[in-house]
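Repro:
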Amino acid sequence: EGAAAALCCGSLTSLRLFNNKLGTQQGFQLLAPLLCGGHPSLVNLDLGGNNETEDDVVHLLESIKRKNTSEKFEKSTLRVLELGGNEGGNAVEEIVEELKRLQPELDIARDRPRQDPNEGHSN
């Protein structure tokens, strides 16, 4: 609730919610609509270390994407989004690639999916 209240502040440029246990309270689900409608000044958002599920990370990223593709919203001012320490996977990587095309100036830091060390090697 406190994070949602902070996002309602129109002059906020940076919000660091690292390791705030948002994943135990469906925090990304609550934050996503606030990011979709467009925050007028937010540049840096750190949501790392919250142990959110891949579905919730995708939901949040979809909201940011909608802001960048809808004509009724101004383009996002967000430049740095920290998501490391939350669940990742193919669905997260797919939407990150879409966001990179829509908003190349946005840096999305996250944990990369682990690759099998034997992948690509034959015995």
